[in-house]
Amino acid sequence: MDQLPNSRTEPDGSAVVRVLSYNVRSMRDDRAALARVIRACAPDVVCVQEAPRFFRWRKHAAWLARESGLVTVTGGATAAGPMILANLRAHVERTEDLLLPRTPGLHQRGFATAVLRFGAARLAVISCHLSVNPVERYTQAGLLLDRVATVGEPHTVVGGDFNDHPDGRAFTRIASELQDGWAVRPWGGEHTSRPGDPYQRLDAIFATKGVEFLGCGVPEKLSGVWAEDLVAATDHLPVLAAVRIPAG
């Protein structure tokens, strides 16, 4: 497996940023294994799904950030589960959590959004977790594209659990307007569910056209990421991408 590029600032002011997307199942599994996986991926930004969002959720989110060597940027209960973490390389310019229209009988969903600066490069980040209901999920895919447009940044990445396959209606709706990192520059493993016997890709990292993918996939053979930790940490496998963001 080719090595995924490390974070760095290029001479022209562009930035190589490592983005991780990870459904942590409310940290109900092996929390130490979860933190080890995240640290080994060495991300600049983490799009979390199913972050702690109930009793003392801020305390649990702070634990995850601290043990992963990161800080909490936004999200959690305020976004109904999606959350964004980042390292100290990222300068936070603004954040916003958005709750989506709720279908009676289904879970509340939302988007966590942040605009981050890495030196001269600015990047909008959206963490999302779409519905298990196909009708609601398709609608939420459209709302996600609307969110990408209204965030007002030319360079945006979206990390999420899309609860859909690449040939599904919601997934293809998103991929019709955004780059699918695995499809553009596959690296590592493809399938994200379930650990131990992965057979389907439900999780992905997308980006707007100006973002260059240098590699994207499940870090199954990355140094420091152990198979037993991936199985113990949660019921999804993470997706890690390295992207290049132009300056300006």
UniProtKB/TrEMBL annotation:
Keywords attached to this entry: DNA damage, DNA repair, Endonuclease, Hydrolase, Magnesium, Metal-binding, Nuclease
GO molecular function, one term: endonuclease activity
Protein's UniProt keywords contain DNA repair: yes
Alphabetical list of Pfam families matching this protein: Exo_endo_phos
Gene3D superfamilies cross-referenced by the UniProt entry: Endonuclease/exonuclease/phosphatase
InterPro entries with a match to the protein in the record: Endo/exonu/phosph_ase_sf, Endo/exonuclease/phosphatase, TDP2-like
Ranges annotated as spanning the membrane: none
Record's protein name: Endonuclease/exonuclease/phosphatase family protein
UniProt source species: Streptantibioticus rubrisoli
